[in-house]
Prior knowledge:
Elements: H1 3-22, H2 30-53, H3 56-61, H4 63-79, H5 82-110, H6 114-135, H7 137-143, H8 148-170, H9 174-177, H10 180-183, H11 185-244, H12 246-258, H13 262-279, H14 288-303, E1 307-313, H15 322-341, E2 351-359, E3 362-370, E4 376-378, E5 381-383, H16 391-402, E6 406-412, E7 415-421
Parallel strand pairs: 1-2
Antiparallel strand pairs: 2-3, 3-7, 4-5, 6-7
Helix pairs in contact: 1-5, 1-6, 2-4, 4-5, 5-6, 5-8, 8-11, 11-14, 11-15, 12-13, 14-15, 15-16
Amino acid sequence: MNYIHLLNLISVGIFGMILSASFCNIIWTWQKKLVLAGNMAVILLFQGMIYFWINSSVVEIIYPFITHLPLIIILFILSRKFLWSVIAVLTAYLCCQLRRWLALLIVAIFSGNAALQDTAELILTLPILLLLLRLTSSSIRSVSHYTVFAQIQFGLVPALYYGFDYLTRIYTNLLLKGALVAVEFMPFVCSVAYLVFVVHVSESGQIRSRLEQTQELLNLQIEQAVREIKALRASQQKTKTYRHDLRHHMQYISSCIENKKFEQAQKYILEICSEIEKERLTAFCENEAANLIFSAFSERARNAGISMKINAAIPPSIPILESDLCVLLSNALENALHACQQLDETKPASFIEVTAYQQKSKLFIQIINSCDSEVMFNRGVPVTNTPGHGLGVRSICAIVDKYGGMYHFSLKDGTFILRVSF
């Protein structure tokens, strides 16, 4: 009896089962570890019974049914993920090729025989297992969180190798005969898998780059919005200070009147009124952040000769962050102002109309503005080829998506309409 060959069979069984379990997302309690260890012992015992009582070659032929299938069922029970349990077992089977090929290399170098092959595989089992557990297990486990389609893509190569190995080496001898279609199959699979991998990585890199760029722009816009809010709040505080000092102003004016310095009193009154008017903030709504943004853009629209009407009923407490509301309103109103400023002078006067209110814990915002140019849409979202433009729309969409809300852009009869709800 070849005990080295028997030990090698046991070692490869343990190797594959431990790897398969490590590739699954299982919270390993002592009970689950005992369940896995007990089932591994049963599987190995059943293999040994067939090996001794029937024939060693039979073990190899029915191996998928006495080892892989029971292992998949065990891992499914422990992880509650059937598809990934299958992929984990197939991936572990693919990893077994590492020890087999390295052992074949050693046999080729030292001109050994089957005994050296078994010995080399047996020696290589533990180092390769530890290396794979340390370097690959966590990465492979992370794929189990991907979509079903991505998991199937990941498991396609191990599945094809599994079928190829059994069809050409176990159930037939096509590989040993050197049939070209069999010999060239796995290189073909590797080529296709490599090309798919390159395309996937390239697309993922582009998406990640766009997301990073968008995030950076959002951060810059948030910082700018925060600075504007601070400036407006400082202005508002200054107005409060004027009101607080009103008593002192009145005393000064009274003194001027008592001393019959009427022109000096009149001049002082005009100066005070002018200063207060500059710092005045119109109360568009109860929400302080929204009110500050509305006040700032209302002033800009007035200076640009653009009619701006605001009908807002936004309460102090809303379902989104103050910074996100500021970025959304700033971008939307900035785009509206820009569109109005691009209007042909021969066209009717430009305008911006804002409607905002909260109803049943949902915030609704509508902004309508004059628009003279043609707007290109891609899947309902305005797009532009002009460098540096289009960032505001992406920021609006990103914020709305963040809260699971809805947005709608449309162009009708020379007016652009934006509607969002959270």
